[in-house]
Amino acid sequence: MQWSSLVTQLFGPYHGMREDGDFLQGEVIFEGEPLTVIGTTNHAPIGVQLALAQARVILDTVTQHPGRPILLLIDTQGQQLRRRDELLGINRAMAHLGASIDLARRRGHRVIGLVYDQALSGGFITSGLIADACYALPDAEIRVMRIPAMARVTKLPEEKLTALSQSNPVFAPGVQNYVAMGGVRALWQGDLQACLREALAPAPTDDRRARDGAERGGRQLAAAVVQRVLDAA
Fold first, then answer.
1. CB atoms within 10 A of CB 28
2. What span, in angstroms and rounded, lies between the C-alpha atoms of 52 and 103?
3. DSSP symbol at 186
4. Rounded to whole angstroms, how far apart are CA atoms 76 and 47?
5. Which sign does the torsion angle of CA 121, 124, 127, 131 carry?
6. Which tens digits make up the pLDDT trace of 151-176?
């Protein structure tokens, strides 16, 4: 889905969102209350500039508008693979973005992620996966690593990983598999305004991903391991 169509469905035709290259930003009104919206489009690779631009808006919101909810619109092909960004410290810029989102959450901002098109690799890890909850549209494409790349990292044959992906969501791309693992809390379908309203409603902001993954059968051990660590602390 195009970002313009998405925000029109969410906030109406006079939403106030603007596009600056691959960067989306706006202060919108949703059911009478202000909402900060940031995101990316055009399958944007997240480099130093985009990471810092998003972090700047989040920190400005924390400073100037305490408690205001933040919506992250996600469409990214992952981190920018370019020498310039590597030399400028893309790892630190993306870590800064993730830390800014975490700070907003700790300061009482409700932070919601929505994958509306594509979410890959580090661009997704440092945005939607750090939010209080991440949602997705049914046609979204989500993956952290392709099977050939996974084979290079794990030193396991592609054939074995492909076979594992048929029965284990951890090894498989796809939005339904991320729902099963708990990384995506739910899919938004039908009335998108109702979906956003429910996501922003007062609710516990503790990390439910491991528990959701266990209940849905996508991650069998994560919740148990987390609990053992907490019990031992």
1. 18
2. 15
3. E
4. 11
5. negative
6. 888 888 988 888 888 877 777 777 88
Q: How far is CA 220 from CA 64, 118, 155, 157, in A?
A: 42, 26, 23, 23
Q: What pLDDT does 202 receive?
A: 72
Rounded to two decimals, the pTM is: 0.89
**Cβ neighbours of residue 151 closer than 8 Å, sequence gap 6 or more:** 157, 158, 161
Number of DSSP helices (H) and strands (E) in the chain, helices first = 11, 9
Secondary-structure class of domain 3-204 per CATH: alpha beta
Pairing of strands 33-40, 44-46: unpaired
Q: How many CA atoms lie within 13 A of 114 on its CB side?
A: 26
Neighbours of 210 (CB within 10 A): 18
Q: Could you count the other beta carbons within 10 Å of the beta carbon of residue 163?
A: 12
Q: Which residues of the chain have pLDDT under 70?
A: 203-204
Q: CA-CA distance, 141 to 136, in Å (whole number)?
A: 9
- Every domain of the chain and the residues it spans: 3-204
